[in-house]
Amino acid sequence: MPRRVVVVGCGIVGACAALELARKRFAVTVLERLPAPGRGSTRRSSAVIRCHYGEREAIKLAHEGRATWETWAEHLRLRRTRARFVRSGVLFLLQETAARRSASALGLKPEASGADLHRIVRGLRSLGVGCDLLRGSALREAFPFFAFTGPAEVGLVEPDSGYVAGPREAVLDAVEAAGADGVQFRFGERLLAVDTTDGDPPRILGVRTTKGRIPAEALVNAAGPWSSEVNLLARCPLPLATVPLGQTVVEVALAGAREPRLPAMIDLRQGFYLRPSPSGVRLGSGLPREHRDFRSKPLERTDRDALAAFAREKVAALRARWPAARVRRLRPLPALYDWTVADGYPLIDRTDVEGYFVAIGTSGAWFKGAPAIGRIVADLVENPGIRRARLPRTGHLLDLPVLSRRRAPIG
């Protein structure tokens, strides 16, 4: 079993994986090309914590993540944390339909179509996730400040879900906890090469960076938008590809008093998601056409005119849904996610190179599951042959082949 592990990437997934590996007594070094933790995809995450998925194993992973965020300080064994879980409730607004949309590499997951809602509700409840379907007067009474457009509009509410206030602060929390357990962090240091044996299969020997060589028996790719490049450096392209995906988030400052009942919301009718923030709300993408800005290189820049146009469109959608909202100031921000092209779900798996593991395709949607993903990664490094993982806070048994690099696309 390896004793020395290098984790590439210090976003929320990399930091959580490092912590769990250290707790298993591995000697862990985290390599981050940026000058500080949480400066990549995690910095732009809206950190909405919800469990609405059509795939049962995804519900389990999200539910375990939520249970951990609810007890974040206890999980980290810290007296005080910078980040905190806010139980605002999460509202999915959809138009109920009979037809189920198939999965698409170029859009949102099929559970966003509005079909199979009763099946999804049964799945959530069977796994211990409280939720309600609201229509008509019940929906209007629950959210009287929103404008609804007709009887086909339905709301799926998770009252115990919400968001993490301070996604980058959560990384700093995890780094503090991991550092206390002996993890070494190397910031501003870029991976240049991965050393392996010439055997069949090859085996990890260490990595070379802009500042020298780090010997290791295991390597974890948690590099976010750089994940595909790390796979190539390890000479290990995967059957399911990940690519950098350009996105935009809009910080909106609102005038007037805050609406205390405002939930985090994914509005599939108006085409945006919303997360409350101290000064107003954060808005993001909610349409399939907004999940197609694939980048050949992570460092490509987003056009300023495109940022401004996106912000105008989402603010107009916000006003259509929430007529009383008064926008005082808005600021569009470019984001870059790591996207699994085939189905948008993460890859958490060993690979064909012995000692090489991936926790990728996670940014943009799987902040919620990061603490659980970190534990799964540590379990895999300890025992690469496992096919199921027990999730300790919820008790769920997670089937790992669903997250495999060799899976059939989900949906």
Report on this structure:
The protein is an alpha+beta fold and 411 residues long. It has 2 domains: 178 residues, FAD/NAD(P)-binding domain; 173 residues, D-Amino Acid Oxidase, Chain A, domain 2, CATH 3.30.9.10. It contains 10 helices and 22 strands. The strands form 5 sheets. It has an 8-stranded mixed β-sheet with strand order 6-7-5-15-16-17-14-18. Strands 9-2-1-13-20-19 form a 6-stranded mixed β-sheet, sandwiched between helices. Strand 11 and strand 12 form a beta hairpin. Helix 3 crosses helix 10.
How would you summarize this macromolecular structure in one to three sentences?
With 411 residues, the chain is α+β, with helices and mostly antiparallel strands.
Discrete helix count: 10
Mean pLDDT: 94
* Class per helix and strand makeup: alpha+beta
Report the helical percentage: 25-40%
Can you tell me the CATH architecture of the largest domain? 3-Layer(bba) Sandwich
Low-confidence stretches: none
Supply Rg: 21 Å
Strand order of the largest sheet: 6-7-5-15-16-17-14-18
The H-level CATH homologous superfamily of the largest domain, spelled out, is FAD/NAD(P)-binding domain
| Terminal Cα span | 36 Å
The overall number of domains is 2
Number of strands: 22
Could you describe the largest sheet, including whether it forms a barrel? Answer: 8 strands, mixed
**What is the global morphology?**
globular
How much β-strand is present in the residues? 25-35%
| CATH fold call of the largest domain | FAD/NAD(P)-binding domain
